[in-house]
Specification:
Layout lengths: L4 H12 L8 H30 L1 H24 L2 H29 L2 H13 L4 E7 L3 E4 L1 H20 L3 H10 L9
Antiparallel strand pairs: 1-2
């Protein structure tokens, strides 16, 4: 943590600014946390998109292998060749496993900014839990910064996904990264 501290202190004025935009401490905390979560999501989304772009050939190869094996296994099933179906389906499951793992890796890339932001929030809010105006069962009258950030992050991420998919340029960009023909980016 000590090696990260100078960088967190350098970014501190940028990070703390949204927390001071509103006069109420609670409203400022919520606004600041939402804005930081949005910045975290945007940076993560850009990173994940870049990683998917850099690995697009491998992702396409896996997808084509899954599609080909799926079609072959259906053909074997229609023809009643159970042994061929099992063998081909096993290969399709291997390709699916690679695809699933790659999807998990890309998701991990999309959340890489979060630990750094949480480290900064620990510097600022570790000793100041958020006092709630009501008592929450199993939690109590206050919430630690981690829980409040995580809940707001999830909410902002859902809203971000719903909003961004409505923009055609964003949807087109995401679709073009995994497009079948590579001429799209030339």
């Amino acid at each position: 943590m000590s090696s990260l501290l100078p960088y967190l202190l350098l970014l501190d004025p940028w990070f703390i600014a949204p927390f001071r935009w509103l006069p109420s401490a609670m409203e400022g905390y919520f606004l600041g946390t939402v804005i930081l979560a949005l910045q975290c999501i945007i940076l993560g989304d850009l990173s994940a998109t870049a990683v998917a772009y850099l690995n697009r050939d491998y992702l396409r190869k896996i997808q084509e292998k899954m599609d080909r094996n799926h079609n072959l296994s259906e053909l074997a099933l229609i023809q009643g060749d159970k042994e061929s179906y099992k063998a081909i389906n096993r290969q399709a499951l291997d390709a699916f496993g690679y695809s699933f793992s790659m999807g998990g890796a890309i998701f991990c890339v999309s959340i890489w900014p979060m630990p750094f932001l949480l480290a900064w929030m620990n510097l600022r809010f570790a000793e100041a839990p958020l006092e709630l105006p009501f008592h929450v069962p199993f939690i109590g009258p206050s919430v630690h910064y981690f829980a409040s950030f995580l809940l707001l992050y999830i909410a902002v991420r859902i809203v971000y996904s719903l909003v961004m998919t409505r923009f055609s340029w964003y949807s087109d960009l995401k679709a073009r990264i995994l497009a079948k023909n590579q001429e799209t980016f030339v």
